[in-house]
Prior knowledge:
Helix content is 0%, strand content 42%. By secondary structure, the protein is mainly beta. The N and C termini lie far apart (89 Å).
Amino acid sequence: MKAPRAPATTQTVAVVLTQSKVIKGPDGNEQFQDAATIKPGDVIEYKATYTNNTGKPVKGLVADLPIPEGLEYLPRSAKPGASLVKAATKTAVFEPEPLVRKLPSGKTEPVPYNEYRMLRWSLGQLPANGSAAVSARAKVEAVAAPTAAPAPTTPPPRGK
């Protein structure tokens, strides 16, 4: 006789990603609003919360936070900060902020913040039933409207 199958359990570590629009309140303090609608110039805070759903610590936790196309990462806005976070462009090579790239001439230049596509934190151990959060801010870039292609022209009909 086969043993009954155990019911499916929740993930060992669950991740919840949220986004909020950061605005200045009437008192000058920051407030957070729903980011269902955004426009160029808005500042968005992305937050990933990792929750350990087990009764034992999880070791070697690495937290990733994507930065979608059309957003410009705001320098040094990653939390927890500088000693734990590394950034990457679409190449997915993670380095400490600010990123630099080597030019064909051998010189280096800073990578523009609008090319950052991912942040990564090495958080280490997440306690049993504990949680940890990472966050970063990005500004919505102005998107140029696509230029309309000229309408195709058709030659006038030829008479017979």
